[in-house]
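hey
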C-alpha cells in the first residue's frame, strides 16, 4: 500500500481477519455471510461455499441484466506491482463479467463457523486504485491498462444508476431464490453491539493490529 497517498486522501488502512490481498472500499458494496460449517444450505469446504454464495450474488446481478460467471480456475496477475490488489486476479468461483472480475471474496473458519465477506464493485477508478496500491517503478500507463483488462464494475454494464439500497434488495432476492429461503431483517443484540465497539476501539483502530498484525485481546 502507498501509505503516504492513503494518509493524504484520508483512506484508513484496516487489516481484515480473513487476510488476503488489498481492497479499496470506496465505490463498492460489501457483503458478509456467517453460518455454521455444517449448515445444510452450504456444501463442506471453502470452495463449495464460495460456489454457492457467489452463485447467489450472480443471481442478484442477473436481475440487473448483468451476466456474471463463476471463474473455473484461479489465474495470476499480469503485473507484479498489482499482485497485492484483490481485483487484479480471480480465485476459483469468484465472479467474472466478460472475463473481468467484478466481485472479490475472502473466507475464514473457526470453531465450526465460517465467515465469508467480499466487495462488489459498483464503479471503478483504475487511476485511484493504482495510486493507492503502492509506488511502482514501471510503466504507469501500461500498469493501468493491465488493471482495466482485469476489472469491471456494475455501472459499466447498466444504463441506469442504482443505489445501495436497491442493490442490497436485488442481492437479497438472489440469496432467497438460490437457497430457497426467506431472509428476515435483524439487528445486533446489546451484547453484539458492545463487542463491536470493543473490537473497533482496541483492534481495528489499533496500529498494532492493522500495521503489524499483532493479536489484540
Amino acid at each position: 500500500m502507498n501509505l503516504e497517498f492513503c494518509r493524504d486522501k484520508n483512506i484508513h488502512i484496516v487489516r481484515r481477519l480473513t487476510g488476503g490481498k488489498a481492497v479499496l472500499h470506496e465505490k463498492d458494496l460489501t457483503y458478509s455471510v456467517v453460518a455454521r460449517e455444517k449448515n445444510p444450505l452450504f456444501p463442506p469446504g471453502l470452495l463449495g461455499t464460495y460456489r454457492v454464495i457467489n452463485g447467489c450474488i450472480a443471481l442478484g446481478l442477473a436481475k440487473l441484466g448483468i451476466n456474471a460467471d463463476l471463474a473455473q480456475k484461479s489465474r495470476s496477475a499480469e503485473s507484479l506491482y498489482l499482485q497485492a490488489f484483490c481485483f487484479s486476479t480471480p480465485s476459483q468461483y469468484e465472479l467474472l463479467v466478460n472475463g473481468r472480475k467484478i466481485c472479490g471474496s475472502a473466507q475464514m473458519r473457526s470453531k465450526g463457523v465460517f465467515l465469508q465477506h467480499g466487495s462488489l464493485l459498483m464503479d471503478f477508478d483504475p487511476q485511484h486504485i493504482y495510486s493507492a496500491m503502492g509506488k511502482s517503478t514501471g510503466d504507469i500507463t501500461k500498469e493501468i491498462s493491465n488493471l482495466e483488462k482485469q476489472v469491471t464494475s456494475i455501472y459499466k454494464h447498466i444504463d441506469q444508476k442504482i443505489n445501495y439500497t436497491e442493490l442490497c434488495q436485488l442481492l437479497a432476492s438472489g440469496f432467497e431464490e438460490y437457497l430457497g429461503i426467506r431472509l428476515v431483517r435483524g439487528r445486533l443484540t446489546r451484547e453484539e453491539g458492545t463487542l463491536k465497539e470493543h473490537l473497533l476501539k482496541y483492534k481495528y483502530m489499533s496500529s498494532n493490529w492493522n500495521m503489524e498484525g499483532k493479536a489484540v485481546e
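Residues 189-217 form one domain. The chain is about 35% helix and 15% strand.
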